[in-house]
Amino acid sequence: MRLRFLGGAKEVGRSCLLLSTDNTSILLDCGIKSAKPTEYPAFEDLPPVDAVIWSHAHIDHIGATPLLFSRGLLSDDFRGVFATPPTLALASILLPDSYTLALRQWRELGMEELYQHDHIARTLSSVKTVNLHEDFKIGDFRIKFYEAGHILGSCIIAVNVEGLNIVYTGNIGAPGRAEHLNPPEAVEGADVLLLESTYGLILQHPSLKEAKRRLISSIMDTIKRGGKVLIPAFSVGRGQKIMRVLRKANLGCKVYYDGMLKDTTWFYWRFTSYLSDALIREVCLTRSNPFIDGIEPINGMRERKKIVSSGKPCVILAPSGMLEGGWSPYYLKELAEDEKNRVILVGHQGEGTVGEKLSKGKRRVELYVPTEKFEWVKTEVEVKCEVEVIEGFSGHGAANDLRLYARSVRPDTIILFHGDPEAIEKL
Ligand SMILES: [Zn+2]
């Protein structure tokens, strides 16, 4: 058996691992790296691919899969993409969204389109869903999914091939970091553990309790002075975590959510069985939606305009988390002028993104603002409102959590991936 990283080694993004024997070649994840320009896995000298296995629906793990179709990199005996049912559901939202952003970039950089809508459709229609703990076989590989505790439907992939047990974590959460998900499962008997190391540099995340307290207190301060709060959030994972905090907080003002969060959160509700035991118990007791009860969706441009122009304080939760797509750039443009307002950044901000610039104190930024017809208008905005960064909501384990996980698996060999070189070195 041979193992080769096509991406995701000593970097965060474009996760893609090739496992091959003389008879079978499979990819574990096939993602992109959000950068300018976007980076894709190194597909050179790739043997024909017999199957792709997705660990979870984040775009840095699935976003390059349509390229396998557009470039004809699949074997004649291609068996499909294998994923949990919620991962398929979320991918059906995230892949088309990623294509919209890619199209904007290709046009901006004068590049040819690397794939089209048809390749996304072919990717999605090739997906075969497999539940956690169900065994399945692809050629020489026997595979099983385990809970990863990172986002809805995320899984650790256990592979048995030629007598070797390989455990690939994808991205893993940590006990107590996301009350709506079960913690990552220890997979026993691993010879090789491929362990993510995004937060290898950070021994321990700031406490979740403290992060929640700061978030509520900042919102209350803003409301008291008559301002509005914008929280740009990832549509899968971070968004739902923040919703869980806000719906219980009794803020005394309206809380809204917009954009893709409406679709992705519907799937969180649809696939409740993939959420934590504690959350299922809560649903049984309250008979209410554990994410959106008490939070209102924003539907259409008329409602958006009404909310931003109203004098009433409110909280708006909208993707994207880095203000590079979705409706968050629209709200930033509308709220930036008024010093009473506040933007709270709660997630990782990629290099060169609007979110990163704001988090580093830059106050004049270029935004792509969506229109009613889903066109993008490049706009320069001076940000006079307050900007705050609150850490502690991460869906990844920190160094201590990763070490504990590795100890629970007790492998002979550990290979670190999905981390910057410094993070990997430290871990
Ligand atoms: Zn992820």
Content-based structural category: alpha/beta
Shape: globular
Distance between the termini: 27 Å
Strand line-up across the major sheet: 1-2-3-4-5-6
Mean pLDDT score? 95
- Which kinds of small molecule does this entry bind, naming each only once? zinc ion
Number of domains: 2
Description:
With 427 residues, the chain is an alpha/beta fold. The protein has 2 domains: 2-202 and 395-426, 4-Layer Sandwich (Metallo-beta-lactamase, Chain A), CATH 3.60.15; 208-389, Rossmann fold (3-Layer(aba) Sandwich). The chain contains 13 helices and 20 strands. The strands form 4 sheets. A 6-stranded mixed β-sheet has the order 1-2-3-4-5-6. A 6-stranded mixed β-sheet has the order 7-8-9-10-11-20, with helices on one face. A hairpin with a 2-residue loop joins strand 7 (135-138) and strand 8 (141-147). It is globular and about 65 Å long. The mean pLDDT is 95. Residues 56, 58, 150, 171 line the site of zinc ion (ZN).
State the gist of this model.
The chain is built from 13 helices and 20 strands. The chain has helices spanning 59-62, 65-70, 85-109, 117-125, 208-224, 238-247, 261-270, 277-286, 300-309, 328-335, 354-359, 399-409, 421-426, and strands spanning 2-7, 16-20, 25-28, 51-53, 81-83, 127-129, 135-138, 141-147, 155-161, 164-168, 192-196, 229-232, 254-257, 296-297, 314-318, 342-345, 364-370, 376-382, 386-389, 413-417. Strand 2 and strand 3 (25-28) form a beta hairpin.
